[in-house]
Write a structure and sequence with these properties.
This protein has 334 residues and is α/β, with parallel strands linked by helices. It is built from 10 helices and 16 strands. It has a 5-stranded parallel β-sheet with strand order 3-2-1-4-16, with helices on one face. A hairpin with a 2-residue loop joins β10 and β11. α5 packs across α9. The longest helix is centred in the middle third of the chain and has 20 residues. It is globular. The two termini are 22 Å apart.
């Protein structure tokens, strides 16, 4: 049995490997990076999820005989067709959504425009990211991150927990998250992502961080305390703004022009933002980080792989069994 992870891991691929090992299979996890844990290590900031939690869970999974192969990226280090040649009889794809969505506006090609996922990835890998003195984060969407904050608030308790107690706490948190997200069929949250980026910028010593989102405060489905925490840390939140163009000089970001939104959703609660002509405002800045959503990177799929996609660009699966268009391939993710 082979479970695949490009960046994403713990809730999906490593959980899958864990359950398979308990059933008597011999799972192998292929990880693109040199560290296991996927986006929980490389995307989620440590203040949200202490790394010792992830390490403890991974060690427990490896102790069951699960093999993790690092620095093995699908489409780069091997092709999907190679798996059958290596003797793997079944595949579970849990590759996540790690390609940042793009904005089709003037100036996105300027130096100083970053994508949220790439920014967090570089920060968590320890690379130096130059941001300047003033950063603008663009992001808005639907969120359910009060569970994440409630888990993080227990960080002091984790140090004194036994491995068994820690595992119980993790499963309780997972159950709470599953219950919460089951109530909301909306797309993944960009507000949480934008807040993570803004907070990481503050932690990097940037003296001025501004976050602009389309929704007003009442429309953002975030716990009010999450917003207050961010504001207390020095992040300046501006609501009902959308980006119009990114300004630059000699190929380098100098600012951003924003436009006021009159509404975000139409009468049927569908995402359909409307803007107010003549309400443009310009903000000087050194860096613009786009946190406007993510999509799956499926460029590795070849015609001979016989994997069908949905109109939304995701792998076609049976919601009951997670089976794809091939009987030996399964897929999952949030």
């Amino acid at each position: 049995i082979y479970t695949l992870s490009l960046h994403d891991a713990l809730p999906i691929c490593l959980s899958c490997a864990h359950e398979l090992a308990l059933m008597g299979f011999a799972p192998t996890v292929f990880e693109a990076h040199n560290v296991a844990g996927g986006m929980l290590v490389l995307g989620v900031p440590e203040y949200r999820l202490p790394r010792e939690i992830i390490r403890a869970e991974i060690e427990a999974i490896e102790s069951l005989g699960v093999e993790i192969r690092h620095n093995s990226k699908l489409g780069k280090d091997f092709a999907f067709a190679d798996l059958k040649k290596q003797g793997f009889e079944a595949v579970f794809l849990g590759i996540g959504a790690h390609r940042s969505r793009e904005l089709s506006i003037e100036g996105v090609q300027n130096d100083g425009v970053l994508r949220a996922i790439e920014f967090l990835l570089n920060v968590n890998l320890g690379f130096r990211v130059t941001l300047g003195r003033k950063v603008v984060v663009i992001g808005g969407g639907n969120v359910a991150f009060d569970v994440a904050r409630s888990v993080v608030r227990q960080a002091e308790k984790f140090a004194g927990m036994t491995e068994a107690e820690l595992r119980v706490a993790l499963h309780q948190a997972a159950a709470a998250l599953e219950e919460l997200t089951a109530k909301d069929a909306e797309p993944p949250d960009e507000v949480r992502l934008a807040l993570d980026v803004a907070r990481e910028a503050i932690r990097k010593g940037v003296p001025e961080v501004h976050m602009f989102c389309l929704e007003n405060v009442s429309e953002i489905p975030a716990a009010r305390e999450e917003i207050e925490e961010a504001e207390n840390e020095g992040i300046q939140l501006h609501t009902r703004f959308g980006p119009k163009r990114i300004l630059g000089r000699d190929g380098k970001v100098t600012g951003i022009e924003l436009i006021k939104a009159s509404r975000v959703f139409d009468e049927n609660r569908r995402f359909n933002p409307q803007f107010i002509e003549g309400s443009e405002e310009t903000v000087d800045c050194d860096t613009v980080v786009l946190a406007i959503g993510q999509s799956a990177d499926l460029a590795w799929i070849q015609p001979e792989d016989n994997l069908k996609l949905t109109p939304r660009g995701t792998l076609q699966t049976d919601p009951a069994t997670m089976a794809t268009s091939r009987p030996d391939v399964f897929a999952g993710g949030d």
